[in-house]
């Protein structure tokens, strides 16, 4: 059996933490995964790098860019797969960023934990082992970035954190789970359509995400237009609708050539123009807002960042954001 080398990049998160005597969870100086005894497939060896040791709330696009650059390099270093350990709070964003920018066939697997190393029922080591299994399995190649926790494999494109504390927190509401791990097998349930990948060089853009609500007025949108924003994501109502006042605010932003991207604040489903009245999706789109069809607000923000860094504007930007 040929030897398979897996690159492991630790970035921090609960998987690298422990609880103190009061039960408060804190960062460990030494990542508990480093000394842990784990069962890895027979022909697999690990090359481990501690790239960061951060809670994932401290991770932003600048850190994602560092990971992106390391993974681009790793692609020509003879690895059979890559595992990234990460805090779960922003794990879906790092996974989506890498999935949208890396044109790499190698399996890239992100994992994390909901319970730290010394908590009862800690899930870190188990998820770490599972991620190594998935990353060293040939079936995992060419599937884009994968997220593995709790015996499930999710596609970065659709996965989201659904629960504050439950270990079964990751779900893919639109597509469903992409694969499962059993004691002896890794079973993929479907293939996704090909991803649209663009490179990234610069992440210094200011793109806030705003959530719509009943009675939203346009004031905040107009105030934002006076700041240095490069675009805005609005988590709109239902299939992508807003109050009349918010719709007027959107027109104001668009008149100042600020891209406005609409997603839904609903947890599941696809945002698309349906209603033709003031604030309805049809009129928002007619005014120039862009519907980012199948992704949530935090992912749309990264996608707009990547699109703008690739100098996409107008129709090309719209097409890119609408690509499934
Ligand atoms: N479960 C976790 O990893 C949550 C933690 N706050 C983090 O994202 O770093």
TrEMBL record:
PROSITE patterns named in the record: ASN_GLN_ASE_1, ASN_GLN_ASE_2, ASN_GLN_ASE_3
Reactions accelerated catalytically: L-asparagine + H2O = L-aspartate + NH4(+)
Record's keyword annotation contains Hydrolase: yes
InterPro entries linked to this entry: AsnASE_II, Asp/glu_Ase-like_sf, Asparaginase/glutaminase-like, Asparaginase/glutaminase_AS1, Asparaginase/glutaminase_AS2, Asparaginase_C, L-asparaginase_C, L-asparaginase_N
Annotated ranges, domain L-asparaginase N-terminal: 5-191
Coiled-coil regions listed in the entry: none
Active site feature: 14, 14 (o-isoaspartyl threonine intermediate), 88
Binding-site list for substrate: 56, 88-89
Gene Ontology molecular function: any one: asparaginase activity
EC numbers for this chain: 3.5.1.1
Keywords linked to the UniProt accession: Hydrolase
GO biological process: asparagine metabolic process
Asparaginase/glutaminase C-terminal domain: residues covered: 207-320
Family: Belongs to the asparaginase 1 family.
Name used for this protein in its record: asparaginase
Species of the source: Leuconostoc fallax
């Amino acid at each position: 059996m040929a030897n398979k080398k897996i690159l492991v990049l630790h970035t921090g998160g609960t998987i690298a933490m422990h609880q103190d005597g009061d039960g408060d969870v804190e960062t460990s100086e030494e990542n508990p995964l480093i000394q842990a005894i784990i069962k890895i497939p027979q022909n697999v060896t690990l090359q481990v790098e501690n790239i960061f040791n951060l809670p994932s709330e401290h991770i932003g696009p600048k850190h994602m860019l560092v990971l992106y650059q390391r993974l681009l390099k790793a692609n020509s270093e003879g690895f059979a797969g890559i595992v990234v350990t990460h805090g779960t709070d922003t794990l879906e964003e790092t996974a989506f960023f890498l999935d949208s920018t890396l044109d790499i066939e190698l399996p890239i697997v992100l994992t994390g934990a909901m319970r730290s190393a010394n908590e009862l029922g800690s899930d870190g080591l188990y998820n770490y082992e599972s991620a190594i299994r998935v990353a060293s399995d040939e079936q995992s190649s060419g599937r884009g970035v994968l997220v593995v926790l709790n015996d499930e494999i999710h596609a970065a494109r659709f996965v989201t954190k659904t629960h504050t504390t439950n270990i079964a927190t990751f779900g893919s509401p639109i597509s469903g789970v992409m694969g499962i791990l059993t004691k002896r097998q890794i079973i993929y349930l479907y293939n996704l359509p090909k991803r649209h990948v663009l490179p990234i060089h610069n992440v210094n853009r200011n793109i806030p995400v705003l959530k719509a609500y009943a009675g939203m007025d346009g004031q905040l949108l107009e105030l934002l237009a006076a700041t240095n924003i490069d675009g805005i994501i609005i988590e709109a109502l239902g299939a992508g609708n807003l109050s009349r006042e918010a719709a007027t605010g959107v027109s104001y932003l668009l008149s100042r050539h600020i891209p406005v991207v609409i997603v839904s604040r609903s947890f599941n489903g696809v945002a698309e123009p349906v209603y033709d009245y003031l604030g309805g999706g049809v009129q928002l789109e007619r005014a120039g807002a862009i519907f980012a069809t199948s992704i949530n607000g935090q992912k749309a923000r990264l996608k707009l960042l990547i699109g703008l860094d690739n100098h996409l504007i107008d129709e090309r930007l719209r097409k890119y954001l609408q690509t499934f």
